[in-house]
Design brief:
mainly alpha
């Protein structure tokens, strides 16, 4: 019983990540901590599902207020559009995770059946998933703290005489909302809570893709290691048949998971592309310079006006590193699926058989990779494509003189 308890599984690898996500209204699945995946279930009337639905409603309300502001003031500045994109994309992310939760129990049962037939030999993927969760969310927390820190310093340096410090912070952070409706403290708390959820969702989508990719890569590399261990040995035909069947099971896991999280991958990559362009534009257009103080006397700000510049630089580096991580880790699924071919080509003629040929045909005959709703497959070349797109967008934006100005109403 202890051996079963300690056996590395997909359930164990995703447990920490999903539990943290549920605090923010994502993936409201029940029984995620149970060892027996048959107890994993989804219910629309559970507390977690209701919390997730209320989260979606709150995010929709904030998005509608932002849209109303843009329509009322005919404000199509980059700052306002960014707020609308941020709100809408994270609302869609929450909906996609809710959709994934409805399919999660059936998916977990299928994965458990595969793991029962072909158990995970190397449990390092569980540790990798947990470490990825801690690292990504810690770095995301630092980014959020820096963003709020720069706003708090600005509000304290340039206070609004009609509001207290918290009210000034909320008005400075969400002008597109409290220009449409009258500011109240409880509304400020509500909007800030929704904003924290959106910020977390934005990072969590990338983390989720990373953890799933680590697991799938581990399954494929398990097949690759068995093939390499057999190199140079006299192997019966039954071995290659078993390897081909295990490889087929591993690739079926990729397809099953891709069907469930394809939308999450798509929105994750789209978000990364947009916000890298935005933060790069912030850096190139405004430069690394201090904001002037509102006080005539001595500048008492801790970073002397460089608070926003520090945030922009950290955010840009974090976005690039996070995007590279999710792209390269997800691309390893495709790379691992092609590795058996190299070992199969080295099989001597005396051992070559029909099963080996069928194995080779399967490796070359299908493209096994995670995708964004099948619009694109995540491969290493995608990183260069995204980089080229970012450079093109930045040149166009700078050519037209578009700057990330903050609207004043």
């Amino acid at each position: 019983m202890d051996i079963i308890r300690e056996r590395p599984t997909f359930q164990n690898a995703m447990k920490l990540t999903i539990l943290i996500g549920q605090f923010f209204g994502l993936n409201p699945v029940l029984g995620i901590t149970n060892i027996d995946t048959k107890r994993v279930r989804f219910s629309y009337i559970s507390v977690r599902s209701i919390y997730s639905i209320l989260t979606i409603v709150g995010q929709v309300v904030v998005f509608l207020l932002c849209t109303t502001y843009i329509v009322m003031y005919s404000d199509t500045s980059l700052h306002s559009i960014t707020s609308m994109v941020f709100g809408s994309s994270n609302c869609i992310t929450t909906i996609l995770f809710f959709r994934a939760a409805t399919k999660w129990p059936k998916l977990m049962n299928y994965i458990t059946k595969v793991e029962t037939i072909y158990p995970n030999i190397d449990g390092a993927f569980v540790t990798k998933c947990n470490l990825s969760c801690i690292i990504v969310l810690t770095l995301a927390l630092v980014e959020h703290v820096l963003a709020d820190f720069s706003k708090v310093i600005y509000v304290m340096d340039c206070p609004n005489p009609k509001l207290d410090t918290y009210g000034g912070f909320i008005m400075h952070s969400f002008p597109w909302i409290f220009t449409v409706i009258e500011y109240k403290t409880y509304l400020g708390i509500f909007v800030q809570f929704i904003n924290i959820q959106c910020t977390f969702n934005w990072n969590f989508a990338n983390l989720f893709v990373i953890c799933v990719s680590i697991y799938l890569t581990s399954r494929l590399e398990q097949v690759n290691r068995k093939i390499l261990e057999a190199k140079g040995k006299f192997i019966p035909n039954s071995f290659w048949r078993n390897m081909r069947e295990e490889y087929n099971r591993a690739t079926s896991l990729v397809r099953r998971l891709d069907d469930v999280i394809g939308g999450i991958i798509f929105i994750s990559f789209a978000n990364n592309l947009f916000f890298i362009c935005l933060q790069l534009l912030n850096t190139l257009a405004d430069g690394i310079k201090a904001l002037p103080s509102c006080n005539i006397g001595a500048d008492e700000r801790p970073l002397k006006g460089y608070e926003q510049a520090v945030y922009f630089m950290y955010s840009f580096v974090f976005l690039v590193m996070r995007s590279l991580a999710v792209s390269l880790i997800a691309a390893r699924v495709y790379s691992a699926s092609k590795e058996p071919a190299f070992a199969l080509y080295e099989i001597p003629p005396s051992m070559y058989c029909t099963e080996v040929q069928r194995f080779l045909d399967q490796v070359h005959g299908e493209s096994v990779a995670l995708s964004g709703l099948r619009f694109f497959q995540v491969k290493r070349g995608l990183v260069l494509t995204i980089a080229g797109t970012i450079v093109t967008y930045e040149l166009v934006l700078l050519q037209f003189g578009i700057k990330p100005t903050v609207p004043k109403h």
